[in-house]
Each structure stands twice: as C-alpha cells, then as structure tokens.
C-alpha cells in the first residue's frame, strides 16, 4: 500500500491524496499522529478504489490542518471486508499548525427549529458551556409562537446559567400570518430578544438597542451587531430599513482594533455557501444594499444560517477575502444537516446537527465545527484565518 500527499500552500490543508492499495475496495483518510488518527476527529474523506486499487482525492476550500496532526493516515478495506491495511505519510513541517491559546471563545448555533421537543436543543446548548458568549443565528423556533420562545428561554437558563446569549431572528421566528401582539413586540421573538438583552446586561455586557430591532454589543475587542432580517410569511427582509443605517454607523464608528461580528440569518448571495452562480435569487430582499455596506468595510466576520448545509460540503462553510479582512461563515444547523455532495461514500455523522466554535486570539481566528450528538470535530470544517486587519 502507498499514499502520496501533495500540499499546495503552507498553513493551508488544500492538497491531493493518491492512494494505491492493491485489491482494496475503499480507503478512509484521516489526519493522524505518528501512530493513529487524531482522537476526536472524523475522517477527511472515504474514497472508492478502482479495480487496480487506486484512488484520488482533492481537498479544496482552504481549510487548515489541526495542530495535533503530524501525518496523514490512509486505511484501506480489503475484499474480505475484515482485513484492512494502513499507510502513514508525514506532513512536512511548513504545512503543520501550531497550538493556539484560547482567548475569546464564542459558540455559534443556528436553525434550532424548536417545536415542543427540546432534547436536541438542550444537548446543543450544553456543548456551549465553555464559551464566553453564545450566538444564535435565527430559526430559533419553528413557528414563531410565544410558547416556543418561553420553552427556549427555560432551556437556556437551565443549561447555560452563566453564559450571555445573543440572538437574531430567522424566517421561522415569526408566525406565518401577522399576530398583532408579536408585531408590537409584546410577545414572540421581539420579547425573547428583549429578555436576552436584560439577561446580558446582568452579566455586565454593554448592549446598544436600536429602535429598528438591530443592536450592538461591545465586549473587549469585539463589536457584535445583530440584524433581525425576518418577518411574517417566512420572509427574509428587514422590517425596518434603518437596521442597515445602524449597521453602517456601528461598523464605521469602530476603534482601529475592534473586530466586527455581524449576525444575520440570511447568507449573502455573493457568499452563497452552495456556490451557485451569482445570477441565482438572493435569500434576502436587501442583499445588494447590505453587500454594498460590507464591501466598504473591513475587519469583520459575517455569520449566517438558514441553509442547514453541513460544513462537510466540498466547498466548505467559511471563506475569507481581501487578505483575510472579511470573513463569511455559514454556520450549519442544530437540525440534521444537508450534504449536497456527489461523493459516493460519506460518514453517517456528517449529517448530524452542528455547533461552531470561534476562538479569537491576538493574531488568528480559529474555526472548529463539531457534531452536537457526539462532539466529533470535522476536518472539513476546521479553519484558521489571520485576524482581519
Ligand atoms: Fe432553518
Ligand atoms: Fe431560515
């Protein structure tokens, strides 16, 4: 058996893997140390082998190599389905990653779609207990009902009594038909956001609430801006356009060192995680206006949800542009995720609900996504970007 790995750029995991395992049926690729796959990480890929035992896999999407990994391991399954062969290839030093210290740790979850069974949601919230802050990127409940938001408030208080939680609304957070009490902010999503604002203030967070529904929270070197771009009829639109003016002001008024974190349920068309042509229909009615504001700014991370896509899709869930000064992340889903891939063999846990960790250090943004059910980390959802300047 043999494995050849060609890496393309130091600090980046993009690479080509060529496997030769005579008589093998399929091979699984893992990031590994000098003896075995690194613990707690899912495979990189499962590749069918040709009758001559050959297989090739191209890893694209500018992921990173986890710091624990010093080797790549290929494990081939032989025709009796019991025997396996393994081959370890070292990762050359310039391509390995160093360990980062934890600094500011944010957890991000999206698309919880709570109905009346909160078990999965409790499990997701418990996985955020190490974080300084939890961000919720919309579709928090399934039908926008006041009872569902009440249940979610209980779950948060029960599982994360010491963690501030910042939300934005998704298209499922308002009932399909208008309900006056909710439109007036007396129940449903608006009062849930209000409740979390009061709660965050009790933890000493500085929360600037705009009458449009948007808000900004200042914490250390971060300015976190919440945009609630959703309304009845399952629409992704700003109820009040003033939210965009608020965003522009908040981004422009930052100090030189402040990193902007923008939370909005809808992905932007130009950063569509499905990478459809740019002629596709935007998710958000004010997509163009919002994109224009962002194109004039730097040093921010834009977090979206809505797609329920697995971060294991070949193109990946995160991208950075303009020398890393703008990062766009589509954050997966607490509900089972969608893979949209032609790959014939995929591990079953790649469709699990996901939780994303953002570790923000002096120089680096580290993104790790894992399965809510098992806590297994996904190599295809591990990124490191230089801290936007
Ligand atoms: Fe959703
Ligand atoms: Fe949605």
From TrEMBL:
**Keyword Iron (UniProt):** yes
Q: Does the keyword Iron apply?
A: yes
The lineage's top-level taxon is Bacteria
Q: Which InterPro entries does the annotation name?
A: Calcineurin-like_PHP (IPR004843), CNP_phosphodiesterase-III (IPR050884), Metallo-depent_PP-like (IPR029052)
Q: Which residues form a coiled coil?
A: none
Q: Which UniProt keywords apply?
A: Hydrolase, Iron, Metal-binding
Q: Where is the Calcineurin-like phosphoesterase domain?
A: 107-308
Q: Which GO terms describe its molecular function?
A: hydrolase activity; metal ion binding
Which family does this protein fall into? Belongs to the cyclic nucleotide phosphodiesterase class-III family.
- Tell me what this protein is called: Metallophosphoesterase
